[in-house]
Amino acid sequence: MKKKNYNLIIGTVITALMVSLILVGMIYTPYAPNEIDGMNKMAPPSVQHLLGTDNMGRDIFSRVLAGAGTTLLIAVCVVAIGVAGGLLLGALTGYFGGWPDLILMRVSDVLTAFPSFLLALVVISIAGSGKYKVIWALGILFIPSFSRMIRAEYVRCRDQDYVRSARLMGASHPRIMTAHILPNTMPVLLSTIAIGFNNAVLAEASMSYLGLGVQPPDASLGRMLAESQSYLFGAPWYAISTGVAIVLLILGFSLLGDGLSRRRAVYDA
């Protein structure tokens, strides 16, 4: 009897729910995320303000939606850069091999020897804080992990019978790489992308928490969580609502990635 992949099911549901809320928040929020109401500071959750208000009277629900949208947008850009760079480098080195492959592996080994978050902190500290600098710093640091995965798949596939048949039929190297090998890397690539989203959300939230990510007045889950610490006992709804949003985003992508990995393992078996 085939076991149900609950991680995939739960991860898909949580991710779909969060993405749906974020998409709605891009079109409509009950209040403007940066609208200040000095007469309504630290109001508890109510019908008017579902998650209460912050220390400047801004609606927390509206800011959570805006902050989650910013976090997801940054994660999409970071993963896109990582996938694009990793796919190009990994496909070329995995298919052709040689000295470029050796150099890529050594550079990747050096980068993976250090925690990527610490490397990102160093880059941001040198280049300066800001949303776009975080995107490029994290995106570039994500390239080695994607390139190693893509390279391993191309090394596995390049001597398969269907690739040899394509060569005998006169198919060019670019065609073999894109039309024959690339589709067979999709199961691994999709699970890696889901895990990449999980890591990108966590990294962006951590940087914003430290004040190196999205800058005010723009909403950011990490910065909101840092601001809420001063009001943890007087207005716990501020920290709880922001923390739950971060946890759900990370949990959804984490379970989704794990579920896709398990599904791939079942098919491979």
What characteristics describe this protein?
269 residues; MetI-like fold; 9 helices; 74% helix
What can you see in these coordinates?
There is one protein chain. With 269 residues, the chain is mainly alpha-helical. It is 74% helix and 0% strand. The chain has a single domain (6-21, 57-268), classed as Orthogonal Bundle (MetI-like fold), CATH 1.10.3720.10. It has helices at 6-27, 60-96, 99-112, 116-127, 131-157, 161-168, 173-209, 221-228, 236-268.
Secondary-structure map:
Elements: H1 6-27, H2 60-96, H3 99-112, H4 116-127, H5 131-157, H6 161-168, H7 173-209, H8 221-228, H9 236-268
Helix pairs in contact: 1-2, 1-9, 2-3, 2-5, 2-7, 2-9, 3-5, 4-5, 5-7, 6-7, 7-8, 7-9, 8-9
| Top-tier CATH class | Mainly Alpha
CATH architecture verdict: Orthogonal Bundle
Query: How large, in whole angstroms, is the Cα Rg?
Result: 22 Å
Give the SSE order as H and E letters: HHHHHHHHH
- Provide the number of structural domains: 1
Termini separation = 15 Å
Number of helices: 9
Can you give the mean pLDDT? 86
Indicate the structural class.
Answer: mainly alpha
Q: Using the alpha-carbon principal axes, give the shape.
A: elongated
Query: Could you give a short account of the major beta sheet?
Result: none
The CATH homologous superfamily name equals MetI-like
Number of strands: 0
What portion of residues belong to β-strands? Answer: under 5%
Uncertain regions spanning at least 5 consecutive residues: none
